[in-house]
């Protein structure tokens, strides 16, 4: 470990070792942090020698084990959902690569075979040959052009921060921080929210659900996610909405091309993606019926990911709500178990 880190290890006599991770996430722990914190001009600090002086309510060992089991069970469910989503996302990307990068259905038609997993009517949408293009060999009849040929670009804005009536409303408002730190395919909630008045009296706008949102400037330029619900956003991001009713195909295309887009971006300090970055891009443009077929076939995968993400968010909220009540003794373990069973 580095010199600015502290290792805490329970020997099991007073604290059940797995319970320690929950103890240091509780409100009493953070109250002690604030009590001993040394506020500095540049950054705050905490003396290692002060940590043994923290005073915390420690439940009986039997209660610690029960609390650890309850909260750990919720965490296990969240982790399982996360792993499922990783597998599902890999499946969607593999299918996109097969259709739109490796052109496997075209090769299959050229060889006169019916590939597994592609219905005959869908296979008939693909040509049986290739043509030369600026990007190399592409399927006959397909084109090379800008992403904006098949996507609508949407921008955001920020309501005046000194207007209290613009903020803390019911409308999620995504920033570059929300998008870059999402780490998931779908963004479901944001750090800040705005009111209907803030929406109406600023440059921001409602971005439709299933739009792909990209950080356009700053150190995290190119980070991207999809909006799992209708949201507003600020001017540090761009949203792209499919013009051909194929949002999942568009998302996969952007994933495929994002590194190239970022490398073509410009900025004096950080790369900056602009409208011209998208309008001057060159990508393989499949016909809308092919994109729509991909969207239809992959929709069950994407919607399962969305459902898992929402379920994990609900489980995390339940876990975080139970944690302080269980640590303080306000909520009994048996009552918490009933709450969890009712939430299933």
The global form is: globular
Largest sheet: 5 strands, mixed
CATH superfamily of the largest domain: DNA methylase specificity domains
Mean pLDDT: 94
Strand content: 5-15%
* Poorly predicted parts: none
Number of domains: 3
The N- and C-terminal alpha carbons lie at a distance of: 40 Å
Using DSSP, what is the number of strands? 12
What is the name of the CATH class of the largest domain? Alpha Beta
Q: What is the CATH topology of the largest domain? A: Adenine-n6-DNA-methyltransferase TaqI, Chain A, domain 2
Taking all Cα atoms into account, the compactness measure Rg is 25 Å
Judged by helices, strands and strand pairing, the structural class is: alpha+beta
Gross CATH architecture of the largest domain: Alpha-Beta Complex
* Strand order in the largest sheet: 4-11-8-9-6
Order of helical and strand elements: HHHHHEEEEEHEEHEEEEHHEHH
